[in-house]
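> tool_call: predict_assembly(chains=two)
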Amino acid sequence: MKAPVCDKEIGKTGEIVLIEEVVLELRKIEKRFKENSVLKGISLKVEKGEFITFLGSSGCGKTTTLRIIAGLETPDSGEVFINGICVNQLAPEKRNVNTVFQNYALFPHMNVFENIAYGLKIKKLEKKEIQRKVTDALELIQLGGYEKRIPSELSGGQKQRVAIARAIVNNPQVLLLDEPLGALDLQLRRQMQLELKKLQKQLGITFIYITHDQEEAINMSNRIVIMRDGRLEQIGTPDEIYNHPETSYVAQFVGNANILKGKIHRIEEEFLEAKLAGEVTKLILSDTKNLTKEVGSPIVLAIRSEVVEFSQEKKENSLSAIVLEKSFAGGMLRMVLQLSDGSELIASRHGIDAPYEPGEQIYCYWKPEQAVIVKET
Amino acid sequence: MKGIKKNRAWLLVIPFYFYTIIFVILPLAYMILLSFLRRAEIWGVTKEFTLDNYKNIFEPVYLNTFVESLKLALLCTTFIVFLGYPFGYFMAKLSEKWKNRVVTLLMIPFWTSALIRMYGWIIIFRSNGLMDRFFMAIHLTEKPLRLLYTYPAVVVGMIYALLPFMILSVYSSVEKLDWSLIEAARDLGASSVHAFFTITLKLTMPGLLSGIVLTFIPSMGLFFVADILGGNKIVLVGNLIQEQLMKARNWPFAAALSVVLTILTSLILTLYRKVAKVRELEGLF
């Protein structure tokens, strides 16, 4: 399929848009596979040296977005700019981006040296230069001396490192990583997260990283792009995404937050009262001025499970609840509570001591500033 | 219990040995034995040991047959490589539905005897046959080409008979190819042509090589193709063996020729294993 022609006004091939800092820009990218609309207008600017993560569940379009940037897929409409130049018409080999594939995609008939040197040989660098660059890259990924090994002799983690070295040795403007740690075990994944982050800082290359693991995204990124169903749901720093989710989807996906629906009971200068499950609770807002809603209109709150506290006596702002379930996992005690209107709320805390048993009547509450008003999606 | 089981395990391989001995080892041994005996005056062999049959092969007329056979096999195999590789390659890229259809189309001719299919070519090649009439109708030629009983007719017949083997072995090799490797090559700066030669061709080489073996070896021995489409003008090793056995009734010489052909074939297979670094022929075994 032919890629859409670039916008004549701004992005003509070869014309340089004078924003030095923006290394990659996507403009209204759309893509459909047969009847299925995969991307529904993706627009994004990525700055030089940024570590940006596309986070979303499988099928949200994140891999397709990456493939469009790499040139392995052509968008139906919209434009991709790399360094201010529209690359819509450029074949993948002409784009100064490299990809680390999910399944590594190491060439099985070449040894580690030949794999890493593949891109350099195409650029017709001198033999000595290639030798030096490959050796440096191998040192960087701590696999010095592995030149002669063939991919089938390497462990998963080593293959991953070689795939990364093969890409970065070409000094790309943007490095695309498609769930590079997906096939590794948890411990190795954590270690590689740190190493990748270090590597990115060291090289100063812009990383575009794809994952469905929110922990990975929060640990590594400068900015996180939450994708959902072919659209960008929210773009922000890990802190913004985690602490100030804009939508109930983001709150649930990133923070495993509880979503409670209620109505606005009272609006004041610095706070707002909401009626949840027939009871009034107070929220502190820094910006009630921007709130367009009126008293009586519906409101959706996101409350992360770890901020929910509970007691036996009724307190200010507390909601009555019944303990449904109690379980212990990953160092956290997890309690499922049922509010008086039947909706469920999950509370978690460290340690295993909880004085409450299933069936018990308790009260749960949270600090007024810890509930976030979100859009329901 | 365990001991008994273990002791009787060899019983399971008896049928395998039985078949191998009856249908492979014994005929081969018989042929080798024959090749060292002297032919009898009228029928059969005498019990006299001789090396004459092998010496005979080195007579220019027979040696030339080997050389001609190898030349023809080389020519046919070259054509088959350039026709069969692209066919198998693009076939592997078809949708699942079309793949099955094309495989079926490739297999249908095998349901008919190869001999009968060769007679089909006579109808096409003979003077004023289908091809001549077609070429004359579109004014490509004025006179009949008289292609039947010529070298090109034999080459076409060989290619026709053996092309499916190449297609299928390339197909099965390309089918297994991980396409993300080609994407990775493109991503690293390779043009589609460079990616083809450095990745696709290298990784499908076992299929291509097994296709070469599967076409090169039979094309030295398919005597009926040379017989039917070449008249008596083109004599291959296969023809020579058949003639010596059936017409000249020189069993020992036919056996000696067969032994040499078998050795030649084994050498090619050994070479293949060395080059392809695999033990099995791709695609068909």
